[in-house]
Amino acid sequence: MMRGLIGKKVGMTQVYDEQGIMTPVTVVEAGPCVVTQIKTKVNDGYDAIQVGYGNRKKKHLTKPLEGHFNRAKVDPKRILTEFEMIPGFEYQMGQEFTVSLFKIGEYVKVSGTSKGRGFAGVIKRHKFNTQPTTHGTKNTKRHPGSIGQSSDPSRVFKGMRMAGHYGNEKVKLTNVKIVQIDKEKNQILLKGPVPGANNGIVYIVK
Q1: pTM of the full predicted structure?
Q2: In the prediction, which pLDDT does 153 show?
């Protein structure tokens, strides 16, 4: 058994149940993931299982990575990550895990990298309200307004919400329900949105 899988966000759609109720879902291509390394306290200082997802051309590998995959006797993988080891389960190098790990109706944790939106203002970044359009307001409709005090303390406090880099951060969602599972296509349909753009890498953990 494995704690989770690496997947790729395919996109969003909607499904209907027997009562005709529509549910928005995100399609994630999860796995198959292959065991590339078994870490132990004796050799690495902690217990973990390293798995790989997505094929990669051999010419794009560094020599250390090439030796790493040759030692595991698996094809080169694009994404590597570690999951917590389940006590009592015997893992083997090259062992493959698929969406059969999960069940319909199960709740999982999903993490990924949100869409990068570049440099954004306070209205888009922090959901500020705009200033009045009339009554003396000129070119400051989308400006943040006052950011500090007067002569005391004569500085801007740390953590002040201002314009800046927005997005491209790791986002983690909990209690995401699995609506459907397609074992033939290795796809999981998760209720609601999932962080990141289409074709982005996501991590699904029990």
Answers
A1: 0.86
A2: 86
